[in-house]
Amino acid sequence: MTTTLITGANKGIGYETARQLLAAGHEVWIGSRDAQKGREAAEQLGARLVVLDVTDDESVAAAVKTIEAAGGLDVLVNNAGIEARGPGNDVIGPAEVTAEQMRTVFETNVFGTVRVTHAFLPLLERSAAPVIVNVSSGLASLSRVSEPGTLTYGYPGVAYPASKTAVNMVTVQFAKAFPRMRINAVEPGFTKTDLNGNTGTQTVEQGAAIIVRMARSAADGPTGGFFSADGEIGW
Q1: Which of 15, 155, 160, 192 is catalytic?
Q2: Of the listed 153, 164, 176, 192, which one is catalytic?
Q3: Where are the alpha helices (DSSP H) in the chain?
Q4: Residue 160 is a catalytic residue
């Protein structure tokens, strides 16, 4: 059986990804920094819980020990992410964003992804078919954000897109360094979640589809790429 860990999986796209992968026959670990919310989610899904705060070294190390003791890991989905928003849940644009706000977002979205990936590499390297899926965003695509008249062009935020662009670079470099692994970034689409105040235009079922597809990559599948449900995305 394929064993999968999904960070930030007690709600939203992470939760739905867990549901779909469980249905596909995976054993799934729900990674949640909130033990109670994670426990409730795991019980609802029939998944396993590991308390995991991607911004905390000790928490991540403890999660590795827990999953290692239970048999190891085949698939890592780096899903946990945050956005910088101001009063009224408004996205913080270039005129208002501070270095501290940028640092906070990068701590989860970029450093958290690297922290978790680095910690679980030894377990993934023992897997017969290791996979890493980094949840990125269409806002990470410099080509898309630079195209006038598109939704991505009109997005005013700085911290979140910049963090996801960094995640894309991390994805490419890790994929080159570990050619036996399938390591890709994915764009779920503008999905209704707490991250955007439920303003998205598609369901979590739709958003999770590309994550699930890449989590189930075969050993000869693509690696080092950036994908949406419609195919590969330009950087």
Answers
A1: 160
A2: 164
A3: 12-23, 35-45, 57-69, 99-106, 112-125, 142-145, 159-177, 204-215
A4: yes
Task: Tell me how far apart the alpha carbons of residues 208 and 68 are, in angstroms, rounded to a whole number.
Answer: 26
What CATH number does the domain located at 3-232 have? 3.40.50.720
Q: Which residues contact 209 (CB under 8 A, 6 or more apart)?
A: 20, 229
At residue 179's C-alpha, the angle toward residues 177 and 181, to 5°, is 105
Give pLDDT tens digits for 188-203: 987 656 555 555 557 8
Domain edges within the chain: 3-232
DSSP 8-state symbol, 223: -
Contact 115, 60 (CB under 8 A): yes
- Determine the pLDDT at residue 88: 79
pLDDT tens digits for range 140-171:
999 999 999 988 999 999 999 999 999 999 99
Q: Is 164 a catalytic residue?
A: yes
